[in-house]
Amino acid sequence: MTMTDAAPTGPSTATDGSAPLLDVRDLQMYFPVKSSGLIRRTVGHVQAVDGISFQIESGGSLGLVGESGCGKSTTGRLVTRLYKPTDGSIHFEGRDIAGLGPRQLKPLRRDIQMIFQDPYGSLNPRHTVGRIIGTPLEIHDVVPKKQVLPRVQELLEIVGLNPEHYNRYPHEFSGGQRQRIGIARALTLQPKLLVADEPVSALDVSIQAQVINLLQDIQREFNIGFLFVAHDLAVVRHFCPEIAVMYLGKIVEIGERDAIYQHANHPYTQALLSAAPDVKQAAIGGRRERIQLQGDVPSPINPPSGCRFRTRCSYAQDICAAVEPPLLQIGRRHKVACHFAGEIGHHPAEPVTAPLLGVDRHGDRVPGTDPTPGLGTDSGYSDTWYDFPGRRMVRDESA
Amino acid sequence: MTAPLTPESALESHFVDEDQPEPDGSGPIVSKSPGQLARARFLKDKLSMVALVIVVLYVLAAISAPLLVKVGFLDPYATNQDLLNEFQLPIGAWGGISGDHWLGVEPGVGRDVLSRVWYGISFSLAISLTATVIAVLIGVSLGIVSGASGGWVDAIIGRAIDLTLAFPQTLMLLALSTVAVAFITETLGVPEGNPAQALYVVTVLGLFGWTGVARIVRGQVLSLREREFVAASQMMGASKFRLYFREILPNLWAPILVTFTLIMPAFVSAEAALAFLQVSIKQPTPTLGNVLSDSLRFAENDPVYFFVPAILIALIVVSFNLLGDGLRDALDPKGHQ
Question: Does Cell membrane appear among the keywords (chain B) (predicted)?
Fold first, then answer.
């Protein structure tokens, strides 16, 4: 990727000074593993999310992809503060919400809402649709009691349901309709950020498109920022201009749509993409060569040292076990965490990150050199980045 | 979806018709709620229906008894010495059954047995119902709190359940009755005699009977709290109280109903046993228990007088149990097979 690439100009946070809607830095979530028996000692931690950083612009949308158990849903629940993070910060509109208590969180619920995965489990089966959608209004005392019903009907209409169905129960609706009810509930308080936790993965494929389009229209109409958690690459590609790929609690690659889908630099992203069926390839009669990953995802209780993907990576060398690769910016809006980052078929033989980290190709410290400070800790994008093919820092001249 | 749509809405294209009437004219397929399905299953179960009818008859009897006593149809206290022979046993076959006394008369003083047991059902059911309500209220509240909050709260409530179960309650009930009833009359100002006795029995049954309910409810809550609607409720900023009693509680009515119908008969027989041991309401006020206890003195010479309350107690206990089982099968078709 060169500087002259005509990438669509998104609001660059590093330069224009306006704070992003959501700024997550070094977020960590360790779930304690307790021993059985009377005295339940903590014997270890599931490192579900381990130091991830990203930003979401107002009205922007970030897709979070990865296989099961990589921590993407946990990230969603951390951002909505259903979980309290072990460490790290979550700045929402400039305010750190990572450490807030239940009482302080209540006003925040208006601004951050969530769409859940399972349309059957996320609606209380004993409540009518009107009550489900109206409850947030009641809790936050937003409108007088008399206006709850009109507002509920308005919301039902927005999500494409019959407003007269407010007194029905969830079991009277289909999966797609239930997910619409869940979306209406999330919209009730007019949030600024919506976390969608695999909102369509439980739906029929024919219904998925309808719900995705509905979400897209809602996003445009109300200018809502989205954190879109999904494992379906096609859905994310359609919905999110920016995508983060997670593996075992870490972001391995993050960038705008084209950077990820056309110029993936991380071996894991490449393997993930090669696993997705491709309509265009099918049309011309062939299919992309599949990169088959060997083995299973390692346990998040005891993840591999250095790069977490090294146990399944065909490019892994000594340095991968010794030093963890930082999430380096390698393009205008593209970051990757790999010692041997490169587009498919162009992975370098030498670790490209070694000079920046002050280590040799085996990961041993080179005397007299220091690791570049603050490497890969920024949540946003900078206007200078490290150009891997050229082995030098370059500056975005369009900024 | 028949609502008029605003044509200018950008969302129009996503309106879907997912519940249009069927083209063959049979009308829309109406899905049955879990409640409707359970009702259908219950109505098909003949044994449960018989049990339900019997329970309803008992309840009607209990409600009507005080009224019938007031209008004079029943008189549980009038003595009829003229119907007894020199051994104070009823004159005539089958314990003195006649057109005036359908179930005969009591040996000793000659009170009408039908009036005694009919009125007795009233007291027995009132006591066991009150005790059941207390037990279910305590059990449901503690069970929900225990299951939903987990952690040390759960541990404390769990130990409290163990402690309650380990208590020798029958022994304590007997041993403490005098002291406790004295406390109730003197400190709480409840009138001496039957009201104080009844309050004592109700309190003790309630305070020791909640453990089973709490355990069942806790188990249900443990599975419910993993459902996403609980997270959704937290997401809305709902308070703990709202979460427990508005979101979770409505999903628990089936197990609560079942435990209710299973505790109730246990308390009916417990009350009978206590009456037998002279702890509950005392003669001359009748309960099924103290009528049975009284009848034992004459069991050999007047078996009818003994069998009437005994059968009535057995019948209500069995009916309630069958009803509870039937409800459980209807409400939870997957389990208990």
Answer: yes
Where do the structural domains in chain A lie, given as residue ranges? Answer: 20-33+44-240
Structural domain includes residue B42: no
CATH number of the domain that residue B279 is part of: 1.10.3720.10
What distances in angstroms separate CA B98 from CA A384, B28, B291, B294, one per listed residue?
Answer: 109, 61, 20, 21
Q: Encoding tokens for residue A18? A: 């306006």
* Total residue length of chain B: 337
From residue B107, alpha-carbon distances to B79, B100, B260, B326 in Å are 10, 16, 37, 40
- B77-87 pLDDT, tens digit per residue, is 777 777 677 76
In A219-238, the residues whose Cβ lies within 8 Å of chain B are: 220-221
Full-model pTM: 0.79
Please report which confidence band the pLDDT of residue B23 belongs to, taking 50, 70 and 90 as the band edges: very low
Query: Residues with Cβ < 8 Å from A107, sequence gap 6 or more?
Result: none
What is the architecture of the domain spanning A20-33+44-240? 3-Layer(aba) Sandwich (3.40)
Nearest-CB residue to A113 (from B10, B19, B235): B235
Residue type, A61: S
CA distance A346 to A340: 9
Identify the domain containing residue B134 by its residue range.
Answer: 47-331
Please give the tally of structural domains in chain B. Answer: 1
Report chain A residues whose CB lies below 8 A from the CB of B247: 124, 127
